[in-house]
Amino acid sequence: MQWIEFGVFTALFLFVSVLGFAATHWRRAESMQHLDEWGLGGRKFGSWITWFLVGGDLYTAYTFVAVPALVFGAGAMGFFALPYTVVLYPLVLLPLLRMWSVSRVHGYVTPADYVRGRYGSPLLATLIAVTGIVATMPYIALQLAGLEAVLRTMGLNAGGLAGHAPLFIAFVVLALYTYQSGLRAPALIAFVKDLLIYVVILVAVFYLPSKLGGWGSIIDQSAETFSGPDSGGSILLGEHNQLQYATLALGSALALFLYPHSLTGILASSGRKVIRRNMVALPAYSFLLGMLALLGYAALAAGVEPIVNGATGEPDSNTIVPVLFDQMFSDWFAGLAYAAIGIGALVPAAIMSIAAANLWTRNIYKEHLRPGATPAQEAKQAKLASLVVKFGAVLSIVFIDPQFSIDMQLIGGVIVLQTLPAVAIALYTRWLHRWALVAGWTVGMAWGLWQLYLIPKDPATGEGHFGGSAMPLSDFSLFGWQPLPDVRTQIYVGAVALLLNLLVAVVLTPLLRWFGAAEGSDATAEADYYATEAPAGATEAAEAETSGETASR
Amino acid sequence: MTEQPMSEPPMSEPPSSAARARHGTDRSPGNLLLLVPLLMLVTPLWNHDEPRLFGLPMFYWSQFLFVPLGVVCVGLVVRAANRRERAATGSAADGTERKN
After folding, report:
1. ipTM exceeding 0.90?
2. Residue A51 to residues A40, A524, B18: CA-CA distances in angstroms?
3. What is the pTM of this model?
């Protein structure tokens, strides 16, 4: 048991818990009994708060332990996280501005709300909401895996249920203050988390090379380790994985803001200017992430051995960064680093559970179960749903092999990408027919899942499923026809699934029009997409519009 | 994304109020700058070991250089957009950044 590390970690954890409970009084509205207050912090966060909040939301604890772990195991391929977070902002800048404006005018809280308004199709909106919830749940479970990696490194590495107790306690505390304070809690805690992360990483990237003989020697030692017989890594990309690297980076970038929790941070901001400024300022985190990725090599050069997980009996590669800090730094600084990672798990887990709760409340509860729900009932329902979501995530970590949550996360990226035509393309054109979008979603989803299932866990023996997100082009087949039988180049499954999805949607649209299938009503007008403020009396109008019952009476 | 013909005046002039009514302040040929960072996805450009910088192979340091490049491209587009929006809404644009 590492007492000093544990002491520093616990002290900081208690500090942010107090912040989380106090956050309910921060920039308080007259009434918290509205989903805009609990689920979007009142839609009035300025540039700084948004920067910390979205930064804390996108660059999660899991990223901080998993990206270096990937570099540790595979080398250059793990570095895709950097191009992913660099091409992200130029791609999403303009669509996000349109999304913010139209959501502000119509009072939308979730991407499915928008789809509901744009296409007048409850089915399509429900599909988008369910996709969002299914993709977000394993993401929350992964934050737990990141937190657990830190706890186990500090010596809380028991087997069985007792081994999960610290995680359980941490999550009960998190669940309670999220229930009380809503989005204000992670927004306030994100300040502490990000300051800790910046200090820890900057110290690490300058101090570690000086101890390990400089980056040149670290990279050379890593290259030597990779040249061993049973290693699959390399410090440069190889012949077959360059397309995979580019499509994985691009596909992940396109998928990120389709995740409901990323959009939550954007919709909570006070204006278009805030979003614009943040698209310029957020890459500071990307720089940090790139440096973190390099720590994977530092761990290789330092000869770090991953800790054996007391619950599963297998080495957990997510522990390499915590172990590296334990080996190279004094106990109190390692404790600081662990607190940074641990709190880094709490912030996104809170935002994700809020986003999933918003989806449940707005697009399933209010749409199908209780159409006339008042704003106060919505807020209550969302708070309860956030508890259910978090305990679901804890149970999945306790009772299901953690490896399963990593598989699920892999699937999550592929499936959330299938909502791109209905959410992102819809921001620009309503040309695609709503039933064509449903069909495209179905095809992309089915093909993507099937393809991921076919990827063997163990490439040597070809056994198991969900072993990765890359497939060789030679495996691509349409009803048995293989257009590229001899190409060994790897590609990201999500990118191919999205292309199929778009293809189906584009081909079916003119056909459906020709058969005269109903278009559905569009509640949005072109001017809504660049509005800088909600029109006066917008809240009441939006309420009437989303609760179709009242509007039609 | 260009379902309507590009009929705006160049970035430097404020667009006519009629053009604004149709497209808002987001559209501008200057937005094409946003495509520049996508060069980062062309892996053969930088998938090399030499030359090294601070001991890092080109693969790593050149990708780090794309971070500021992306910031500059997005930054230029954002500055132009803020200027257009300010011209369009006058001092009311500051109202969106209410402190409360």
Report:
1. no
2. 15, 29, 35
3. 0.84
